């Protein structure tokens, strides 16, 4: 039976799937859905590595996960308010310390991970804090206006050991002028990091943005766990 320690901090829900072993990696996963159970279950089915998974939900998705404000990218969309810096402060100053009180020993290393806009946030956070040594951006929203240029013109807070990227092979097949850039941008960003001698990979999955989200998330976390 899968059990998790669950509590709230600053209106965000924190679920901790804690490893019983001492001093193992801790994976932080920002989640759109209310429960991280499906991601944890998928992970346990594909890797035998020991780790703790901390899933943060009930996020202000278009605010917490976005680095700066942009207007709607389509007629039926909502604007993104660009509150990632404030959320990252809550994450690093409140959520992470509280979470690690429930984890055995000290983290061997920490990773920041996420799907969609949370994949964008995972990469952005590497430019704002040095507490993460690995990252995984699954179907990350790297189409975000000017974000590729932000990466190319700013310095990482620390050189991460591993970064994982993935997309669905249909995600860029759209008329939306922003979304259609996602694969080209992701490939260029992955190449940029590889040239800095960061261990990277870009994986192309079958399907659109919404296919097999939990499994794709688990595959990305598995890669950074097993390398």
TrEMBL record:
<keyword id="KW-0378">Hydrolase</keyword>
<dbReference type="InterPro" id="IPR000801">
    <property type="entry name" value="Esterase-like"/>
</dbReference>
<dbReference type="InterPro" id="IPR050583">
    <property type="entry name" value="Mycobacterial_A85_antigen"/>
</dbReference>
<protein>
    <submittedName>
        <fullName>Alpha/beta hydrolase-fold protein</fullName>
    </submittedName>
</protein>
<dbReference type="InterPro" id="IPR029058">
    <property type="entry name" value="AB_hydrolase_fold"/>
</dbReference>
<dbReference type="Pfam" id="PF00756">
    <property type="entry name" value="Esterase"/>
</dbReference>
<dbReference type="GO" id="GO:0016787">
    <property type="term" value="F:hydrolase activity"/>
</dbReference>
